Amino acid sequence: MKSHIHFLQLDLLFNDYKFALFCFISAFVVTLVSIPPIISFIRRFRLYDLPNARKLHASPIPTMGGIAITAGMMAGLLLWFPFSSQPAQVCFFFSVAVLFGLGILDDLKDLPARYKFMIQLGLAALIALSGIRIISFEGLFGIQELPLPAQYTVTITVIVGITNAFNLIDGIDGLAGGIGFMSLMTLGIFLTMSGDANTALIAFALAGGILAFLYFNLNPAKIFMGDTGSLLLGFVAAVLCIRLMQVSHYTAAPVWPHAPVFVLGIVLIPVFDTIRVFTIRIWKGKSPFEAEKTHIHHLLTNQGFSHGFAARLICFLHGFVLTEM
Question: What's this model's pTM, rounded to 2 decimal places?
């Protein structure tokens, strides 16, 4: 008899998640043991995230915790993931490597936004060309099957948009990590239920790394994930969301009949916040990329709420959206 796990209204078969659990634990352990030496290294060379007008922390904090998160994710995948030479896999892990390097450079040198944007566009196009594309909206906004040019355009826009949405919401202790952890666990569960257990391992491996990171990142944070972590988190979440939509589209009896609506819920808070902030800036005649303290977490902390309370409240709302989808 197979063991069952009861998760909300879902009845999960334990054997289906055996390797997912191995990936999760491996990533968790590697990230957990990697962060203390990284903090020591950063303090030694004074590679801090320094306070400025658009940041909420008042003292220098070690950054680049994304190095440990990436190390944990890749360790879990190297141990348990069935690598192949499929174009989608090669392009995905190549993109992860490029984003990892881009994140480190940005954390060290604070690269201009246009350079990061151009690289993200190129990587998103590469993912779309590899075959991971949004094929249909399944009736969302009244749109069904997309013509091929629209598939590429929408896919690239979604990947770049979600990547930057997670990057921009990483403004207070534990927020991006908390939202990312819940989103990745949800994606992993539903990808497995949809028959794509291999891709789901990526979600579980990254979730394990983020959970270990949160031990050091909850208020008061000992380290930030930096762009090294937030760019990776947003990119992986975006690609896995598109993959879930793709799998559901080709499945005769999909686990979630309206996958685009469900996927929108998975990234709703970061995406909504980014669209809201960009719209306000454009309305005021400013550049949408101009740094301001107008994100949801800024609005809460500006009202006197602590970083910890603001992060917990937003994560609670995100969890509520996920359970109601």
Answer: 0.93
